[in-house]
Design brief:
alpha/beta, Protocatechuate 4,5-dioxygenase, Chain B, 12-stranded mixed beta sheet, 9 helices, about 40% helix, globular
């Protein structure tokens, strides 16, 4: 199956030249890392990356992509997103074919997708959950900007997925990578606190500065647990506070995968959309974290 881009012209430019310029802007923006990627001296395994429109979350995402921009020998990027539509199975793995963006086509690692599902108790091969979903798609132009050859495995979680499901998926990913001899990198696609009428979430009121402070505080506590690779405490925080972190299940999966390789994560950048738009009455937090 060829999956057409769904949010080109909305979350990012549909013209290839303009899209490349937008991605450069994400790196060089005052909210971004201020420079394009150089060769990384680190050995990274996973990351948490936001998935909103590039005008808002692109500079934050650029921090992660700057770090991984010169990683060598990555065969497949496993991109775990959030099912915003509610369509499809609990864990949906795109089976094969190609995904299109304005920058070209990307091949899905068909063998890897099938192996994950064969090894998993929960994951299913499915396309329906992906057709109108943006959380995986918005990561792709960044990868195309950086790498000439790579494959992807798009996965989305639906609803209140459990730690058991996340661990099952990660174990399946790890086993499949070993069996197939793939060097992989895991990307968890997630935004953080959603605040305001636009998101039907009004936990507090106050001035713009007071709202900004509260959003930052809510996300700071969640990020603290992520950096310590405490997936149980992170999920407990979500349930205890009602935090509107849309990709908490992908984040739990990224933590579970990272724990197999590293002892902690690193926060590269955090801000909220209000810092860019000036509107804190409707804002979303963005964090870029690497493991």
């Amino acid at each position: 199956m060829e999956r057409e881009s769904f949010v080109a012209g909305q979350f990012y430019e549909s013209n290839p030249k303009a899209l490349k310029e937008r991605i450069k802007w994400c790196f060089l923006s005052s909210f971004g890392p201020h420079e394009l990627p150089n060769q990384s001296l680190e050995n990274y395994f996973a990351a948490v990356v936001p998935h909103a429109g590039y005008t808002y979350s692109g500079p934050a995402a650029a921090y992660v992509y700057k770090e991984i921009g010169e990683l060598k020998g990555i065969d497949t990027f496993v991109i775990i997103g959030t099912n915003h539509s509610g369509v499809g199975p609990s864990v949906s793995v795109f089976p094969g074919g190609k995904w299109k963006t304005p920058l070209g086509e990307i091949e899905v690692d068909n063998d890897f997708s099938k192996s994950i599902v064969a090894l998993s108790h929960f994951a299913k091969l499915d396309t329906s959950a992906h057709i109108h979903e943006h959380s995986v798609e918005v990561q792709l132009p960044f990868l195309q900007f950086l790498f000439k050859t790579f494959k992807i495995v798009p996965i989305v979680f639906r609803g209140n997925n459990t730690i058991k499901e996340a661990n099952d998926l990660v174990d399946s990913i790890e086993k499949a990578a070993k069996v197939l001899g793939r060097r992989i990198f895991v990307i968890a696609s997630s935004d953080f606190t959603h605040y305001g009428n636009h998101y039907n979430y009004l936990p507090f009121f106050g001035s713009s500065l007071e709202i900004r402070k509260k959003v930052y505080e809510l996300d700071k506590m969640a990020i603290s647990e992520i950096l310590k690779l405490h997936e149980i405490q992170f999920l407990d925080y979500i349930h205890r506070t009602g935090a509107t972190i849309c990709g908490f299940a992908p984040i739990i999966a990224a933590i579970a995968y990272a724990k197999k390789h590293v002892k902690s994560g690193k926060l590269l950048k955090y801000y909220c959309s209000g810092d860019i738009s000036g509107d804190y009455t409707n804002c979303v937090g963005y964090a870029s974290i690497i493991f």
